Amino acid sequence: MTPRPATADGPAEPLVHPPDRPTRLAPGGTNAVGYTLGLVSDEWNLLILRYAMAGARRYADWRDALPISHAVLTRRLAYLTEMGVFERTRYQGGNRLAYTLTKRGRDLWPVLLAIWAWEAAWVPVHVERLPRMVHRGCGREFTPVLECAACGRPVEPRDVAGAFGPSGSWSRSVPAASTRRRSESTGTAGMFPETMALIGNRWSAAILGAAFLGARRFRDFAQWLGAPPSIVSARLRTFCELGVFAQEPNPERPDWHTYRLTKKGRAFFPVAMTALAWGQRWFRAPEGPALVFTHRACGQDFHGRLACDQCASPLRGSEVLVESPS
Length: 326
Prior knowledge:
By secondary structure, this protein is an alpha+beta fold. It has a domain at 108-323: Arc Repressor Mutant, subunit A (Orthogonal Bundle), CATH 1.10.10.10. The protein has 13 helices and 13 strands. A hairpin with a 4-residue loop joins strand 2 (86-91) and strand 3. Residues 1-27, 162-187 are annotated as: Disordered.
């Protein structure tokens, strides 16, 4: 049964997030994009997942590895468990809890790989060194490449046409969780500093998504998102400062500007697509998908996959070795 949405008669019934099958969303509510952003737009969540995929299971494992407070770690572990990413079990005679990645949680590995690859290529300074990624299949350190699962060709943003699907809209794509990003609470950038600048805020993520869907003019961003002009202006300025957008004169009116994705901005596409793919696998609205994509070259529905840039083989989670930097 699909959970009942909030009405005048009372609050919404809580959603159940099964660890081994998709969540059935309430009609008309937050869609897969919103739930995905609620999880991946928080740096503590990503850092906890990074160590979980390296073998962390106990509370003490994360406390030893991360500069994280008791309260923050407790909240994030509870949230990730509620979302079906972790399964809580007991050990040492039932006195202590362990957090094990579920099928839903393990399925997040392409998102982390894409983020690491982008940060390594485009962000020169990190407080914490990024891990090395080795493909067991060919034995070499690699960079993941996004390709079309139907035809196997590498893709860039211009190769994929995207649009909202039946459950898609800007209002339904608002993140379903509200947590403070790590750099806001500690005053320092961590392992994913610029990733958080792009997706760690509701409006930033929406502006980036609009750019991938074709927005170029200030009024496009403001009208599509329904955002206050001051917010749009501030986010566009930040994206230009980061080198993700380039500001250019508008051919229609030279005193206005257009905003074009730079090479750095386009390189973030695999992060966006792997995150959206995970979300649409695990959060299903009764109306249908939130976003639909078509690969222009082969004409098929676009479903992305990551491949090894060294041997061109599609990557599998079990074949990826993540090594801590020496």
